[in-house]
Design brief:
The chain has 359 residues and is an alpha+beta fold. It has two domains: 244 residues, 2-Layer Sandwich (Creatine Kinase, Chain A, domain 2); 95 residues. It contains 13 helices and eleven strands. Strands 2-3-4-5-6-1-9-11-10 form a nine-stranded antiparallel beta sheet, with helices on one face. The chain has a two-stranded antiparallel sheet with strand order 7-8. Helix 3 packs across helix 12.
Length: 359
Amino acid sequence: MSLQHFISKAISPWMKNGPGPDGDIVLSTRVRLARNLENYPFPIAASNDSAEALLDTASQEFSNTTFEAVGPLELLKLNDFSLNEKQVLVEKHLISPNLAENSCHGGVLLSQDESVSIMLNEEDHIRIQSLFRGFQLDEGLSFSNELDDWVEEKVTYAFDERRGFLTSCPTNVGTGMRASVMMHLPALVMTQQLNRILPAINQLGLVVRGIYGEGSEAQGNLFQISNQITLGKSEEDIIDDLKGVVTQVIQQERSAREALMRSSKIQMEDKVFRSYGLLKNSRVMESKEATKRLSDVRLGIDLGLITGISGNILNELMILTQPGFLQQYAGEELSADERDIRRAALIRERMKIEIENEE
């Protein structure tokens, strides 16, 4: 494998087998574990030599090793990447924005299907990330525990019997686990019910963020719901709490979709097909408009208004039309206006392929 393998396609292999459980609303599930190693200064206090030593240790222990469930893992050192190549990995959710910005001694271990990403020298020494299609929190926890045990066979974690796993940020101490689901909630946004739901979610110890996590804005009616509490609860309790809330949000989104179709079917059809027409024909498309129109089309697909187009088109084009991917395909840096023109052309071509395949 090579860097090109991981940045050449928008859709990661793990996403290609259709939607997972409740996949009309939950696009993906992620479980991330924050871990640090004994006898190494934490990244926030580490010298360049110490950070490089940890990366060398990871290279010796993990590079080209195999975790049986996903196969071999390949170590990529981010210092060898261009800024745009790192941006593409962020857009695919394979590394965090923080690691991309502070990657002098950073690295990432990736499985070939891109469902496993182990970031090195991010905020913590190790960030273990597992990704799943649809709503699969229980499966995500079980898999992540196995992966965590496999990593711990090779290194010694910084762990306190009373506090749990020790992390750079106090909010991660304890389990070190952040579990999240990526949800498409257009009906709750349209009916303005989400404004009422969000404060209630926050009061339950959960947080709602945008598509790229902390500090990012929601795009295309996509929201990431995750736990805030990592200390004082077991991993199982955290997962159960998150499952309960997400299940309720799924039900409310479905109810809102049904209500809109009963009360405003013509208006819904008009909204969906206007966006469909714009995506098929526009010559210039800004990023925010693209995500909005793609959300409308995905909703139309899930409601059965649009047929013959894969629901994966939202997942794919939401990534493919981001700045990093557009410039990667162009092979050069693009101005904002040039990106808008290329974005529109790429969407038109992708929609054309879908239509021709249906015919």
